[in-house]
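Reopening this ticket.

The earlier resolution said the output was attached, but the attachment link was broken on my side. Pasting everything inline this time so it's all in one place.
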Amino acid sequence: MLTELCSDLRYRLRALFRREAVERELDDELRFHIEHEAEKYVAAGMPRDEALRRARMALGGVERTKEESRDVRGTVLIESVMQDVRYALRVLRAKPGFTFGIVLTLSLGLGANAAMFGIVDRLMFRPPAYLHDAARVHRVYMSWTVDRQRRIDASTSVARYLDFVRWTHDFSSVAGFGRFHLAVGDGDAAREYPVAGVSASYFTLFDARPALGRFFTAQEDRMPAGTPVAVLGYAYWRTVFGGRSDVLGRQLRVGRMTFTIIGVAPERFIGIDEDEVPSMYLPLTAFAWNLRPEDHSQDYHWGWLSLAVKRAPHVSIAAANADLTAAFERSWRARSAVETRSAIPLAAARPRATVAPVQLARGPQAGPDSKVVLWVSGVALIVLLIACANVANLLLARALTREREIGLRLALGVGRGRLVRQLLTESLVLVVLGGVVGLAVAQWGGAILRGLFLPTDVATSVLTDGRTLIITLIATIVAAIVTGLAPAMQALRYDVARSLTGGARDTGARPSSARTALLVVQATLSVVLLVGAGLFVRSLFNVERLHLGYDVDPVLTVTENMRGVKLSDSGQVALESRLSDAARAIPGVIAATPASSVPFWAYEGRDLFVTGIDSVSLLGDFLLQAGNPDYFRTMGTRIVRGRAFDEHDRANAPRATVVSQGMAAALWPGQNPLGKCIRIDADTMPCTTVIGIAEDLRVRSLRSARQYTYYLPMAQYAEPTGMLLVRVSGDAADYAERVRRGMQQVMPGAAYLTATPLRAMVAPEMESWRLGATMFVSFGVLALALAAVGLYSVIAYGVAQRRREIGVRLALGASRGHVLRLVVRGGLRLVITGVLLGSAFAVWAGRWLATLLFNESPRDPVVYAAVAAVLVIVALVAMAVPAMAATRVDPNVALRAE
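Inline output:
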């Protein structure tokens, strides 16, 4: 049986791919049977010619027998399809310019969608590499009430992580992970790398085996300081150590401590971190001790740690949330027992902990960047629709020019179904070519998109990604059907007699309703994209023009990396004072100050107490900033009332503070805040008097104006900050290395400085609007170009069809201006229809886009008017060439041609 099946399969394959040989064999076999049958008749006395005739009649006809034999092979349909493909390739090769234009159009649409799918899939749907049983692994989010508003946070402290480990029961694993940039190496070879601190349980979430060595154990991750061991990231191991196997056991200086390398993570292992691939993984306890050498088991303030949990089998989401919330409430009470004075009561806070997907883009804290990714994906899909409409329009125009050829084929007996299949095959061939080129566009051109949305060190390849290839294949098939449907339906309506007698050249020919509708669709979708681009551009303009309460471009943030150099607190404060003096001595430096907080990067808060207010913390967040008398000059923050602190605000002077306008209004509404008293850390502390009011700052969010800041003189703060702010006379990026080198001379031993422009901390907060503006404008321009090409093709074809009509008009005395208006008026009517429909759709969709805009209405009339003007101008330019060609028609030539 199996032998027969294999033999039959080989025969069918030979019939498909070696058709000529099989046909020769069939001819030889039929000839043998006819000769054999004819010999019988000859032996009976019949003449040979008559015998051959009788033999053919007995066989039933040679050609009929051949057709029956071919039917038995079961390859007729495949052969027919291959014939259609070969014919389509010949037809397309005969018009290379037409083919190139369509393939280019489709490749841009399909390539953009393939690239965007890869990004969305990686950000929102694809679990991290090696993650075991991803459906049961979750990121933990905590929420509580502050000032009658719910706050959600995915970051917590080591102390709270330990509470969750102790007091949850429905999880097979509870893991903590966090990341900072730390100095790695010694001397001039030291460089900053992203370093992850992870609990030993973190690796149990993955089915990952070390490429070399081992992962660290729970015994090496014990409080308070752990064991200084390190697991290298694969890329870091290959780049820095050349992939050497003798790296195990080597000592590596990381931050202020020395770690022993015990293993190397496998290739493609990036953990759950989505922003950067860590260069190495350290035990959580050793990592925290390295950053701050103290016992963190009771410190609930330092929130930098993310949590991941794995539900035990058969534990539901609801049960997991209940277990986490119970542990969180117990942890809240434990913190309240430590911080009796400043803690928010449990009943007022109503703490709750929940699980969510590990992908940040799918969690409750999904940032605007994630939403922009989804919108850009929709934009890419709209571009594909515009490309398909454009291609369908071009194919329809080409089908009309082939009307005589198609009519002739119908007259010769070709079935309309067979003809439709041929036209769809041509469309499929074009779209497949566009899809192949589109994958190349997605691979190389899409690298720009991946650089905008994904970590740069995450390996991504469209050509080897099965999910992206499948989606691209589906999109290609759908695009083939969409683009080939219009010309195929047109073929079903052809009148054979009309086609053979000239068809398309009839006197009153006009663009078909299908082509007109497709053009309106292109214009409508282009308006939607251009409106989105205009709204994001306006938002970006608004956010860049926003006054943050401080200057950004001329300010540098200088951070200290002590690398194990031991100094007392007073010695550290004295070092920072010397560093400020060294900075001011550098040419181009205007002012410098130590700082306890940096906007959008580092914050400090303390417990505040104000007479008459039961709990200041219920009113919101109050961020502390400390600096020397140059602080406000360095930052460019204005004092609106009272005074800033100066050299007279020494350690032994009366305690003084400057508060922001919003803080003054929140604590003392309707009163003069100058001279008011606040107590810091405890209500038994001495009074700190308000001496000045500063403008409000935006330090955590660009959207919220209710951000409270208070300032202390550095002499009264009397603690090391580890950071300085330096104001220069130009752009901070140009001065960064010069300032760092000048200040480095003051640093003791192996300690060193890092200088970073403040713009680098603020810029990520503006990234969503910058991305939105960039991508909407890029895709909007592409859509506009495609719409212009579509309009040009429609008008040009219409002019070609109406040459006789135009010739008659000119012969009867019509002016060339009249002909020009006649051509342009029809195109403008279509464009204006598209503008009206697109504007209506954009207004309707704008309600979902509003949350992504900054101080910008989704119904901004300026944007809509500008888009309408741009589209009309582009349309006029696109119609100019065919319209001018219409005015140059020679009436005699046009009439003689007919």
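Reporter confirms the inline version is readable. The longest helix spans residues 758-801. Confidence is low (pLDDT under 50) at residues 503-510.
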